[in-house]
Amino acid sequence: MSAGDLLQRDSKAVTIRRRIPRWAYPLAIVIVAWLIGWRIFNNMLNLPLQTAQTTPFHLWLDQVNNWVGDNRDSSPVFVYFFDAIRDIVGWLASMFTQIFVHTDVGLQLPEIGWLGVIVLVTWIAWLIGNYKVAILTAAGFLTFGLLGLWTESMATFALTLTAVFFSLLIGIPVGVAAGLSPRVERLVTPVLDFMQILPSFVYLAPLALVFSIGPASAVIATVIYAAPPVTRLTAHGIRTVPATVAEAADSLGVSRSQRLWTVLLPLARRSIVVGINQSVMAALSMVTIAALIAAPGLGVPVLQGLQSLNVGVAFVAGLAIVILAIVLDRVTTAASTRAEVAARSTSAGRKRARRVGLIIGLAITAIAIYLSRTVLWAAQFPTEVNFGDWLAEVINGFSTWVQHTFSLVTINLNEVFTVWILNPFQAMLTETPFILVALVILTVALLFGGIRATIVSALCLTVIIAVGLWEDSMITLASTIIATIVTMALGIVVGVAMGRSTRIDRLIRPGLDAAQTMPSFVYLVPFLGLFGPSRFTAIAAAIIYAAPVAIKIIADGVSAVSKNTVEAAESTGSNPWQIITKVQLPMSRKSLTLATNQGLIYVLAMVVIGGLIGGGALGYDVVAGFSQISLFGKGLAAGVAIVMLGIMLDRITQAAAQRNMRTPGASEVNTAHQHHQRTKKGTNHEIDKRQPAALLQ
Amino acid sequence: MRLTSASRRRYFSSAAILAASMLLITGCSSSLNTSANSSDSTSKCGTVKLAMSDWVGYTANAAVYTYVAQKRLGCTVKQLPLTEQVGWQGLGDGTVDAIIENWGHEDLAKKYITDQKVAEDAGLTGNIGKIGWYVPPWLAKAHPDILDWNNLNKYADNFKTPESGGQGQFLDGDPAFVTNDAALVTNLKLNFKVVYSGSEAALIQAFRTAETNKTWMIGYFYSPQWFLAEVPLKNVSLPKWTEGCDAVASAVACDYPVYHLNKVMTVKFAQSNKPAADLLKAFHWTDADQDTVAKYITADKMTPAAAAQKWVDANKSKVDAWLK
What we know:
Mean pLDDT of chain B: 84
Oligomer: heterodimer
Number of helices of chain B: 16
Distance between the termini of chain B: 76 Å
Distance between the termini of chain A: 27 Å
Strand content of chain A: under 5%
Number of strands of chain A: 0
Helix content of chain A: over 70%
Structural class of chain A: mainly alpha
Low-confidence stretches of chain B: 37-42
Mean pLDDT of chain A: 83
Radius of gyration of chain B: 26 Å
Number of helices of chain A: 32
Structural class of chain B: alpha/beta
Low-confidence stretches of chain A: 1-16, 664-697
Strand content of chain B: 15-25%
Helix content of chain B: 40-55%
Shape of chain A: globular
């Protein structure tokens, strides 16, 4: 049957409000065939590879790595190209470091001490945002000092500024090019996918080899992850400029560059600023990873806390990262709305008052900077006030209490779940011949995604087989699917509750923001205490990371369902349960598929972290490749396999989402929802980060 | 359109004011840095970049070296927290000058010392490292015969977990560490499966939970390690190590060798004749010394620098001998 047939049948089925979806029969047949195949051909052709085993391909990758190390100092490519990049990046990083963190002369005080920095950033927040975010900024930066982490926070701030600068330097021009030319976009999209899904553990050691250890490498690693969001959103902004506006400009006879500078860029400005915001958030999520190659900053105490199992220390540093993320998010968001709001609604008198205020603020800033350069108390944050140690103790006590109280229950929960759900499902994937499993996956892709998604999936599966990691990929896939199902269940329950009540939404949303920006390394230790090292623990950690995104998307989808529709249903006497299941959920079907897409990508982003706490399979391969020179090739291959799983799952769910958009009843909701998604945003950085890929193509 | 360009102009002018005033301030005010002159000797000794691994024995070595190099020689010591492999890589490209406690790593030694000739052995630290199989103390007390590997199969069922697929679970930690455990399990015909927890934190937490909840657990561990002060794990004896018994990785059926831990430094640093390089070569102490400093750091919760100072003050003659 062709994809066209499928499509047609699918949309017909929707219009007559089917009870049993049409895809149910083929799916049932496939599952039965799978079960039979699993029983008959148990453990045949399942392509196993032991943990310490490698393939010739992996060894070849090792040799490539060695070759790079051997030719590092002699090859002109390195001496003139890579070293030049390193020097430029290093120069900017060291400039920001000298301003905010420390200098190399005398007392090694920074150019601007703590008082100067706080007043300066507050003034800038007011200048580009409003007084509310200025107050937030002052409070946030003051907290860094009170937590006893001023220097570390400033080191992270300095490196983040550097990384964001280079992300924009690369991302905006590339985004403009991709927005103007569909061909460039087709070329760039897979590269961006790779940059975002390839686990940073994979390229950390090679980066340190090419650019040597230290801030420059850390910045480059961060840029790899942080440049894609701004690139995608710039392209999106340019692409969505209404054709009529562009044509009007053309009819006035402007040149191409004039059109870009006077029409396209100003109209895409909002989208670009959202992209900058996303890139800042992505850069902050790399703080802990960067510390692995000796980047100074808040990542160092997080890692040290993990090594010494001191949850409190890791938590306090993680809290500082969350605060920095929230401050930067709110300030950039305020900046993106500021110009419009100010121009539209403020009277001339208020404008003048603001301008006078800003000039007075500038004078105060100058005085504060002067003080922080000449008086010791304003230069060095006083060590007497330090709530960090106290907070760490409190958190440690709490963590110990939780572990002692619940660990027996949770370990049993782990056992029941693993024996009855995870092990059988994983066995179905790993013990069935690979051809049969691949056929099952491709059929699912065809049923839900269509012909294009099926072709992409076939390519991805071929690469996975070619890099020799089929079995590990299937183990990871099993955990990924189960984690996504739980994530979705949580997403629906909490998301519906939030979507139906603004009060609940307001109560829960800050917690979701924090859960997303808190580095996962912080909660690994209590999780290990509760569940022990196991695949279940890895799944649980992935859910914590992925659920907030799914919850937010579903909540936004449910709250976007038109009030009239809900009231109409209420007037016919439907009870809340009926309204949820018959009206609100079906009408936010688009959000559900989008949430599934994001849930999957987020769960996959945690595969490597899972490898640190017993998740095994691809995640462990990547971790081992980072720390054992002889397993480098296998680690890299595992990274590629993760990217393949990611692209495959993304394309299938994306295609499914687009199909839903085409179905009649849902279209109205979708446009409303899309709009809603674009205008309403909190710190849910990574939702938006991948949204252009997943949703707005 | 006019609005946006107007607002853009305003931003530019504000930014210009900001930049100008910043320049003014930086130019006019003298920084505390220039008014306060710190020790002159800094320039003479220069900077030493020391890789920092995260176990406490390493921290103790590094703390004492750093303290002596700073206070007695006036050097600047930059401590770079790095994993072992990345630390060696740093020796290769010169971003790291020295590693102050090295556990074997023959593959890395071959690559950077023998083949690339960028690093060299800087002598022994005097400390001895032991790797082995360990069980929590409650288990050793309840079943003393478990401390002999011959009896492990008898108890294999008790070590079963959902992760180990019907066999007993043997837990491994950080993949960076030297392990022969999978080969040992096979070659000693043990009914166990090696489960890779993936990190040292996971391994330690598992031992801690096992001791608290009195659950069964066996795994890889090593000494010296700070956690042994909290939970004194008991070593399970394996067939005795003999010279060459671990030559073929897949055929290993004997205990781990005793590691005489050493220091590694770059050839460039070694030949620089800097006092800090000579201090690194001379640095040598006993297990008791290292344990003392490690105890100050873990049990007494002192900062590494304070712990180092306390030990140095009490051991003047040893320190003087290094500096001769």
